[in-house]
What we know:
- The chain is mainly α.
- Helices cover 80% and strands 0% of the residues.
- This is DUF465 domain-containing protein.
Amino acid sequence: MQTTHQTALETKHAALDRRIAEESHRPLPDAVALANLKKQKLKLKEELTSL
């Protein structure tokens, strides 16, 4: 059974994935911004797997 919290985390994870893709496809991607987005995504993934 999926909880509201888990659904919210998955939604945030998907949004971060889109932001990472958008930043990666820019002519001059911001490496620092990409690194921060990837760290946030990893933290969400770790939280999801712990549920």
